[in-house]
From TrEMBL:
PROSITE patterns the record matches: RADICAL_SAM
UniProt protein name: Polysaccharide pyruvyl transferase family protein
Keyword terms: Iron, Iron-sulfur, Metal-binding, S-adenosyl-L-methionine, Transferase
Source lineage: Bacteria, Bacillati, Bacillota, Bacilli, Bacillales
Cited Pfam families: PS_pyruv_trans, Radical_SAM
Domain Radical SAM core residues, every copy: 24-251
Species this chain originates from: Paenibacillus chondroitinus
GO molecular function, one term: transferase activity
Amino acid sequence: MKNLIKSILPHSIVELYRQHYGNKVDADIQVINFQVNNFCNSRCVMCDIWRKNDQENINTSQFKEVLQDPLFKNVQHIGITGGEPTLTKNLAEYFQVAIEALPKVTGLSLITNALLPQQIKTIVKDIADLCKVNDKHFSVMVSLDGVNEVHDLNRGREGNFLKVIEIINWLKEEQIPFSTGTTITKVNIWNMDQVLNFLRNNQIYGRFRVGEFINRLYNNTEGHAKVLRNFNEDEIYQLLLFYSKLEYSYETDENVKNTYRSIKNMLQGGQRLIGCPYKNRKAINLDCHGGMAYCAPKSKVIGNLLENSGEQIYKKNLKVLHEIEKNHCMNCIHDYHSDPTLELKTLLETEKKYKDLIKVSVYNDLKDQFSVNYTNSNPEKYKIFIVGWYGTETVGDKAILGGILDHYSEKYGSENLDIYISSLYPFITERTVYELKVRATVVPVYSEQFFQRASVVDEVIVGGGPLMELDELALIEWSFNLAKKNEKKTTVFGSGIGPLYSDEKKGAVKEILKLADSIYLRDNKSSNFAKELTGRDDILNIGDPAIKYIQKLKKAVNVSEVPNKFSCFLRELTSEYFGNLNYEEYISFKEKFEEGLARNIIYLSKKTGLKPHFYAMHNFVIGNDDRDFNYNFVNKYFSNNDVYIEDKLSTVETIVDSMRSSKLNLCMRFHSVVFAETLNSDFFAIDYTSGGKINSYLSERNKLDHMGVMTDIMVDETYLYKKMMQINLV
């Protein structure tokens, strides 16, 4: 009806129609965001309230008058902010008024910068006691924008971080519910992983927002544009990694997860994927003068509650709200949590549907019933579809992909190739394609496109990586199955095999090998296992595809000059490599190994005068971000030692440089061993696979003397030094 009217009536009449019917929509305000003052003792890079020195605010009597407006009869929560709210010394009285004036309020909250610890403790204790007596829930949010000096830099106050810690510890002692709130800017972006590790290690819950242009913060300026939503390609990718970490391994509230999913979508150029309580007419913003705004980020003050009724102000100015919805809402990245949009619901439902298919048991049930037929859109080019664990790739996987693409480009000519790469998490592989400087289409695994592409390309290729104890082996089974049904070629190219524990997963690997036209594996152990499993004698060991790519880059990468550098490429021990241990045994072994490893590194550093540098071969939470291991490992064992931790992104080029510029490389990740050996660097490997792929790789190269075992590291702090002495590395 509205579209019909809009198409036939003049604009002025349409506006009258919209105002009339739009104003019929009643607000049901359930949340108030109240700024009790408009001055602050922080000097935050994302806010200019502190520059205003606005010392005027409504008193408690006026505040009571405001809250008694019928517009607020259903309010369930009020959050009191500022400025810095604890600079209002009678702050507890405002909470008292809120409890008395809002008949349905059940929760009250406060946010603080922690800059005046003693004053804050007194005020917060009074408010907590008040809420307890009145049976109201109370919580505090403490601003935490970084660890140590990074927080102080973002907040503009030296020593602020230590005061945050003091307030956090006090809130714990007093058993007052609290969380932390982090605002991400260009200043602190590379410190977010350390913040999250701090929260995890101290069992603190926190939330993370991307700094936004917000009217009430007076930050819509050219200066603030340099630090707000002004991220380069590396910073955007780091944020995508970080919000994925929050989504998959930290946050448990589904609404907050949806907020993080929405932020990720917006960082990639999309629109907001969640609603907003302000847009949904469930929340309102009140300033310290009695002024009301539809929302904090983009609304102007639409009226003063000391002069007019809230309902009248709200309804009279709905045109302002409509304009905000039209011009700003879908691009607002601020973390107001609300229901998912239809677009997000559809994305999640589609992902779940296809995830249910990518299981070995489901494949076994449906493989003979499921077929897909599509038309080849461009028969002139040779089409390859590379499948495997892409979307979770390590630096080693990036080198593998580079090697495979070089092989096929040499074979068919790059101009004659159409390249498709399946991805479990497409933004990861989009980044890999960007780093490798290749033209390729990334295909989401959990989509119809995946099944379509496997059916129409000329060749489906398992692109390296291990065929191991993972349910996602089904994605390879499906791609090979559909390719064979459509008479397409299937190739296993440069993979390893194992570890495998269950008969189901062994059966899945057998199925993959049975469906493969050509099988090229990366080591003799895998080749022999595959021959025994299948009875085939046409299986070849071609080595790791990453090797040729690393050799190519060895000539191209300029090497940094860093004196006395000792590089460590470590990883967390994960349970899939300890299938013979129960959980308690695994944790005990892991802790003893890490302690022994730290003692060995410290001893080696002291004996040689080399400074440990910790690098990451993997940056994604799925598969474990090695930077997290490095932060925790160093914080726990190296507090009195001079070390370096790389917190930036890892690429094939940066790893080549870090190894070649080092006097000694200590390697755990399998491909760190491949890199180090291929680059002819001085290295020593730790066999965390207990006789698996690292052992096989070095055995074929007669370099088992460059490898040590975990059990010896656990019991002897001189072990690494002595082993390296034996082969003249130190």
